[in-house]
Amino acid sequence: MAIKAERTDRTGLERVRSDRVASLVQSDIRAMTQRCLELDGVNLGQGICDTPPPELLAGAVAPAIERGDNRYTRYDGIGRLRHALADRLQRHNGLDVDPDGEIVVTIGSTGAFATTVMALCNPGDAIILIEPYYGYHLNTARVAGLETRLVGLRPDDFSLDMAALEEAAKGARALVLNTPGNPSGRVFNRRELEQLGELCQRHDLLCITDEIYEYFLFDGHRHISPATLPSLRDRTVTISGYSKTYSITGWRIGFLTAPRDMAQAIGLVNDLFYVCAPSPLQAAVAETIKALGDDYYQGLAHGFQLKRDDFCGVLNDIGLTPRIPEGAYYVLADVTPLGKSSSQAAAMEILEQAGVASVPGSAFFSGDEGESVVRFCFGKSDQTLHAAQERLLRWGRAGA
Ligand SMILES: Cc1ncc(COP(=O)(O)O)c(C=O)c1O
To answer: 114 CA to middle of ligand 1, Å?
Structure first.
């Protein structure tokens, strides 16, 4: 009984949890979501897209279940999906991969990242993350017992700080690259990737990419899969998934491709932790990848660019200057005009006064750099975005 009671309070939590998870704290995103619900606000905090999935996708689930796709699949995913992915990786990304041994279907790209870290890094290994970072990368690395080395993008133009990366690379095991980036909005160009490739080669680093926003590209920016560079081909785990591309964050269908030996090691962990990704959903995603033409993906980029332009226009109008993203569907807005002492206070002010939730910049930076920004997600239906924009403009007109 005593143990049961302990588990319910914070001190109890501290007493029962393992050292491995001791650094995990509830994210600011969760707290903002809670307050947003209480205030009936519009939530542009969490990266959950509420646009509808492709029609064909939903229609492909029931037939898969009726066909009997209800059992465990191979640990690395069903053949139809692995083949569809290999074909797509060749056509869209310029990557030639063997669907039999170089692809693992995972529980979202989150599952792909976690199994990669577990399979390829030892506790105590150092892993480099580029700042602003995606919190799950940081926390997953920490839970796996890695030393995290954070290297900031240059504050003026979010370009890479190669000197700092060079320093961080000494004795490190891996570098994480998120392109298009959340929350930076950066789409790393060929020259930048070549520099990173050389760095990885020189320091014998593993490169773990997160390309989940690969189709969300604006102003003609092109996504380059780092593994297409000769310097990175044999040392890169390429991670992506369909949460964002098909707007199915709850389906948990992701994948990775890597050289055979790495894919095999990661596959073992994937099997151990998850057995496999949901079988009928794997089947439905495979059908959809095969059926959709390039126009779907082009439409995605075009449609989200319009959303970006509209939303950034509103931020400019109300004096919260946006850092215009090149890709993904987040924007960092400068909240210094609000005169608050922290990004948390600024985000709360915007939520309470305008009724729109964002994420405090402190969630993405280890130092003070995050305190002058908040992140809005514009990966939302037009209806949700318009509601948020109206609220922000009304608040702005009232003299924010
Ligand atoms: C950079 C990045 N990686 C991964 C994910 C999660 O992807 P998945 O649903 O495939 O696990 C997100 C979601 O917000 C993200 O922003």
So the answer is: 12
Q: What is the CATH number of the domain that holds 258?
A: 3.40.640.10
Among all chains, which residue has been given the structure tokens 């001190």? Answer: 11
User: Rounded mean pLDDT of 289-294?
Assistant: 97
Whichever domain contains 18, its CATH number is 3.90.1150.10
**Are the C-beta atoms of 218 and 304 separated by less than 8 Å?**
yes
Contact 305, 384 (CB under 8 A): no
Nearest to 289 by CA among 50, 92, 70: 92
Burial class of 274 by CB neighbour count within 10 A (0 to 12, 13 to 18, 19+):
middle
Residues 49 and 60 in one domain: no
Residue nearest to atom 16 of ligand 1 (CA): 182
DSSP 78: -
Q: 110 CA to middle of ligand 1, Å? A: 6
Residue position matching structure tokens 């279940």 = 65
26-65 pLDDT, tens digit per residue, is 777 778 888 899 999 999 998 777 889 999 999 999 999 9
- Cβ burial of 377 (10 Å; 0-12, 13-18, 19+) is buried
Ligand 1: residue whose CA is nearest its atom 13: 47
210 lines ligand 1 (CB under 6 A): yes
pLDDT at position 31: 80
